[in-house]
Fold this protein.
Amino acid sequence: MLSNKDLYWVNEDHKQNFHRCIAQFKYHNSAAHPEIFKCFLLKAQLSGPFDWYFERLEVTTEVDSDIDSFAKGDTSPLTGQTTALVRLALNLWNG
């Protein structure tokens, strides 16, 4: 198991987000980066820390969908770099 001294934090928020993610999803912490973590509500994630991302993909691919709000999260704050981090995290999460 990694200890805090083995990990690099972008900032204090990153460290706090990491511990929140680990508390809810024992083996997954890649959603903890502050630029990703701000996109979703952790308590609304049920299956994993990227439920919000999959929900958004499903809604945006439905032609007749009414896109008013997203209960779990929103992808609009993601940049090209943070989208790449999310895709990397999804690959690690799914194996």
